[in-house]
Write a structure and sequence with these properties.
The structure is a homodimer of 125-residue chains.
Chain A (H helix, E strand, L loop, with lengths): L5 H12 L3 E2 H12 L3 H13 L3 E6 L2 E6 L3 H17 L4 H9 L5 H17 L3
Antiparallel strand pairs in A: 1-3, 2-3
Chain A binds a DNA duplex (30 and 30 nucleotides) through helix 1 and helix 3.
DNA sequence: ATCTATTGATTACAGTTGTAATTTATAATT
DNA sequence: AATTATAAATTACAACTGTAATCAATAGAT
């Protein structure tokens, strides 16, 4: 599938949070948070449709949009390629950067500990 | 600073591993690994110079290039923006994806545990 | 001294992206 | 029915990207 640009991802993020959703609602959310013009949001919706990242159903005069790609799948694929490009494939150094800059929340740490515990249980040699 | 494109990052990664380094060496490495034409690599070197991401010194007929931006700084800034865009700023879900797909190495896990321990020591309320 | 090969500089060119404005179709209003 | 407002579709346009080819300068070879 075609790459999703940064601006487009903002739109997709909205649909992942709430869907189906009308163009006007997306516009309302994004003109606010991103200070975008209505036309800009419409363009991005169109491009996402062309890229087959989202779909829609006619709802009278307007459309109701919904994602066609799964958020987890997308997150995983992008994470892998990001980590590969910037960290030669290893994830710990990324987390180390966050730790160094105090960007880890207590919740993050708790979840990470949980992941590690599970991993170790499963990989008990 | 100007954004560094994907293709450019490949070049920068080479300089972060070895520097100073001549154009011909960079070309040798990247034509191999990335199947790029020599001219392509030269273009990318030029663009990185224009973006002030790398610099060079004349070495007779040719140049010796070196990075001007710090790899750790770059990694951190990009990681933060990536995590923000895809995971609303939380890093644990990214690691969870890696765990789920068995992309965590033993070394990763060990380092993560170390990070957590340190974090907890420092955040002992 | 002239020709040639090499290296850096400039130019090319189509596709993508950010950021809309314009056009067209249609639903609502007068 | 004619006019207006609204939503979607099409068009715009410059900057950035990927991917080179061509041009220009200069160091070596003859």
């Amino acid at each position: 599938m075609k790459e999703i640009s940064n601006a487009e991802l903002n739109v997709l993020n909205v649909l992942w949070q709430q869907s189906p959703i009308s163009a006007s609602e997306v516009v309302a959310l994004l003109t606010q948070s991103n200070d975008w013009h209505e036309k800009t949001v419409k363009t991005l919706l169109n491009r996402l449709v062309k890229k087959q990242a989202i779909g829609f159903e006619k709802q009278g005069r307007s459309y109701l949009y919904h994602p066609l790609i799964d958020q987890s799948d997308y997150q995983l694929k992008e994470s892998e390629s990001f980590i590969e490009r910037l960290f030669s494939g290893r994830v710990a150094p990324l987390v180390a950067g966050f730790a160094r800059e105090n960007k880890l929340s207590a919740k993050d740490v708790e979840e990470l500990q949980q992941l590690i515990d599970t991993w170790q249980k499963e990989n008990k040699s």
